[in-house]
Amino acid sequence: MVATPAYTVVLNWLEEQLRHGKIRVGDKLPAERALAEHFSISRASVREAIRILDAMGLARSATGSGPQAGATVISEPSAALGWALRMHIATRALPVKDVVTTRLLLETQAAWDAASGENDDHTDRDDILSHARDLLDRMDDPEISNDEFHALDAQFHLLLTSLAGNVVLETIMVSLREATIGYVQETVATLEDWPSIRATLQTQHRDIFTAVTDRDGKLATRLLRDHITWFYSLVPRAEK
Amino acid sequence: MVATPAYTVVLNWLEEQLRHGKIRVGDKLPAERALAEHFSISRASVREAIRILDAMGLARSATGSGPQAGATVISEPSAALGWALRMHIATRALPVKDVVTTRLLLETQAAWDAASGENDDHTDRDDILSHARDLLDRMDDPEISNDEFHALDAQFHLLLTSLAGNVVLETIMVSLREATIGYVQETVATLEDWPSIRATLQTQHRDIFTAVTDRDGKLATRLLRDHITWFYSLVPRAEK
């Protein structure tokens, strides 16, 4: 028998409060004790609800007492949804091949929007591009570790995606990226010629960057597609 | 101060177990008591971990004792991720406009794949199409409620999407759909001429269905784009 757990009243209540603007991002949630009394449920059930909100990127809990204690409403969907997608991929319900195809679709659209400048109310375009260029310069340093390279690589792709100005698309992209970190790291570990592959990736990154900067949407889209498809082609067959 | 809560060891352990195929969908998780002892954490912390897995569509808990008790590993990403996206939309971090644009992108690609039959290892294509036709017939019944109409409408779109054969794309589509149920219902509530709009939606559904059945990807994509864009144009400006 599957019963509806007590904590769901807290989650449903919060959704209502958010929808009607009565609670906003940055607000504190009422104390555990107050919520428990209000809904006539145990404090353990309230804590379960808050743990779920933490895991979903909807609350951040602080320990201790005093004004800093308790949970604050946040909205950081990417890491939370990325973790959830990664878990579902681990169960084999979501194949890596389908993640890559979906990423390709979303990221090429983002590159098109970013390059063609259809979203030119994006006043910080120059700042974003200059930040992206810095990342590429840091990735050229042969001294940085593979982990650092991957982290900078992810940030570079994310910055270009953010230029498209669609928060949902960006969130899903970050989640998919987060979901495939394991696959990227495992792939790299099996590659004999990683230094030359890393150099090729950088050449591709620079060409994509130039196309976006030059507002050549068609070229940016094609280069990005080639870049992702090429890296995926290196994945050992067993992983696909 | 943000501390790492005790329950995270259980989540990290499960991810490792899933990745290495030591635990699979359908398996029972060890009992709360056993996990608490193994990781030297409280049973309350183990329960928090399992609540999070429940909320993420990764576990289903049964109450009571005996062989049916305890949590079973499942993988039902759609409802869980849909709920999470809906909450983030409620915080206003994810605008409805961006959800609609992203849905448009993913669903037109799915319609293209479904119609062009690039995924013809999909042996149950005929069954899916025949099921979709049944849904349309039921939606023609003027006696059904608006809620039933919306539910059947959602199922129809999902069935066509499933023909594309990309599980990740399908999961995200269902999640986005789940995330905008509130917006659809609120829109409909404000429309004076709902009966005629409902008739128009049905005409559009039938045309899309015919294009997919006839394997006309170009037409299916265009009709679907018009269908979604038209409905979104009816949304009161305040909601966008």
From TrEMBL, chains A, B:
Give start-end of the signal peptide. none
Q: What is this protein called?
A: FCD domain-containing protein
Q: Which InterPro entries match?
A: GntR_C, TF_FadR/GntR_C, Tscrpt_reg_HTH_GntR, WH-like_DNA-bd_sf, WH_DNA-bd_sf
| Native organism taxonomy | Bacteria, Bacillati, Actinomycetota, Actinomycetes, Micrococcales
* One Pfam family per UniProt: GntR
Tell me which PANTHER family the record gives.
Answer: TRANSCRIPTIONAL REGULATOR, GNTR FAMILY (PTHR43537), UXU OPERON TRANSCRIPTIONAL REGULATOR (PTHR43537:SF5)
HTH gntR-type domain boundaries: 4-76
Question: Which keywords appear in this protein's UniProt record, sorted alphabetically?
Answer: DNA-binding, Transcription, Transcription regulation
Q: Source organism's superkingdom?
A: Bacteria
